[in-house]
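Practice problem: predict the structure.
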Amino acid sequence: MMAYFENVIGRYVHLTIAGVEQRIFFEEAGEGVPLICLHTAGADSRQYRQLLNDPEITKSFRVIAFDLPWHGRSLPPDNWWEEEYLLTADVYAETVEKFSEALDLDRPIVMGCSMAGSLVLELVRRNPTNWRGVIGLSGASNVKGRFQDWSLAPDINAQQSVASWTYSLMAPMSPESSKREVWWIYSQGGPGIYRGDTYFYSVDLDLRGREAEINTSICPVYLLTGEYDHACTVEDTQATLAAIPGAKGGRMTGIGHFPVSENYPRFKEYLQPILAELSSV
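Answer:
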């Protein structure tokens, strides 16, 4: 095969978040309506490589994916070893908001998966005018039971156990090579990072009873969850949809917890109609 270059550009931006300086890595491709993509707990933005390389999408959308601090190519802040990593809703939302401001994005679409699929709801609740629309994958008002200490046990190889647990969340018919790629990314997370992310996902963020504060007339909300997802179930997502006036979405067939990366062609069938609606907002 001849050598070729992808049309994906990577760079760093320095931001001060919650009073701490962070050096954040991001990749982007395409032009048009900005689309910020947020990765899952304990992983990084490599999950969006297929979307970033899809010319059908990038001809109309500026796709941007970044690694949260402590994740992937975004190193932890100075003196990171002096604190326990626990992601909170305030820090997470501020990170996305300041990232968007730094890139001078005009009402971007925000799409997130797993913990980020729940975070997009909080972004709209806080300030719906910031965003053109949000797409939450494998997210809900609250997802109980995910925050556990087992990945910190010294007699457990977290790099294999966390990756294997997340592998179980994918659909059996998703391409094996794609599922192994998800496994590989999860095998490279820093110690305690997956656990610290699930603190946000399962403990700190709880929007149950507050869904009516989410204004879909200003910012459209879409929630989608794969039928094979047993972490955030379809029922969890549907209950949240029913509680948010005007929200759209539901079940994705033949797919699991990581739709963008475990079976991108299948997920694209759900994504394109939503992007078409949001591009005219």
